[in-house]
């Protein structure tokens, strides 16, 4: 019996296969990835906040950040996967100066952090806001103010009323929390979940396929920048 030759696919079959491929690409492109930078003075707990949100616990050991620290977590909002990339930079100028302009590139949201037990860290907030403005961060980019270390009740130096007035004057919501206190862990989640909902509602995204929307960034862009920062941070 003669071998049956493979038949050519009909136009309808080819069309169906193409539509299926397009659907896969669209779904991948619709996965939203947001870059959130966390800034403030050294030792205010920036790294601990991002670690708590991404790992669900307080780090066993903490050291001063040199250069930039990077973490990410995928969450679900309205049945859609959203990835948050958290960028935590060193608070000391000597650890930041070589990469600061790259750090502020393609930012979707900013979290300003101060230590509620250290007034000087709160007094530094205007200079951190000014730095954001110098790097042309759009005023429409969501910004939050976070007072960390609220578990140290007997040492609180920045009262809530003062912080709230400052937050209101800069049109930012205020969160007071503790990355260390397990009972306040949901407060840390609330900080980043609030940003995620705001960002998702704005409709900006970038997909794993490399499709890009103006004003967003690709994963490759930021991973290259991350490794560059790690290398340059040891060259001061």
UniProtKB/TrEMBL annotation:
Its main location: membrane. Residues 1-18 have a biased composition (Basic and acidic residues). Gene3D superfamilies: P-loop containing nucleotide triphosphate hydrolases (3.40.50.300). One of its GO terms (cellular component) is Golgi apparatus. SMART domains: RAB, RAN, RAS, RHO. Pfam families: Ras. It comes from the Eukaryota. This is small monomeric GTPase. It comes from Mizuhopecten yessoensis.
């Amino acid at each position: 019996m003669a071998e049956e030759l493979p038949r050519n696919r009909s136009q309808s079959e080819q069309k169906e296969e193409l539509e299926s491929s397009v659907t896969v690409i669209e779904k991948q492109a619709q996965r939203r990835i947001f870059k959130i930078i966390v800034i403030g003075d050294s030792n205010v707990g920036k790294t601990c906040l991002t670690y708590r949100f991404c790992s669900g616990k307080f780090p066993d050991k903490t050291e001063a950040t040199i250069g930039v620290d990077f973490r990410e977590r995928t969450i679900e909002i309205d049945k859609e996967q959203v990835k948050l990339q958290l960028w935590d930079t060193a608070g000391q100028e000597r650890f930041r100066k070589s990469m600061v302009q790259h750090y502020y590139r393609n930012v979707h949201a900013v979290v300003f952090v101060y230590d509620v037990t250290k007034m000087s860290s709160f007094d530094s907030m205007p200079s951190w806001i000014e730095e954001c403005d110098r790097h042309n961060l759009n005023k429409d980019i969501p910004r939050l103010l976070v007072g960390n270390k609220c578990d140290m009740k007997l040492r609180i130096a920045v009262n809530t009323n003062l912080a709230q007035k400052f937050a209101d004057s800069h049109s930012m919501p205020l969160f007071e929390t503790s990355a260390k206190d397990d009972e306040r862990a949901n407060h840390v989640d609330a900080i980043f979940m609030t940003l995620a909902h705001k960002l998702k509602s704005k409709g900006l995204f970038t997909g794993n396929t490399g499709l890009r929307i103006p004003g967003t960034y690709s994963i490759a862009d930021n991973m290259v920048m991350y490794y560059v920062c790690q290398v340059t941070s040891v060259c001061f």
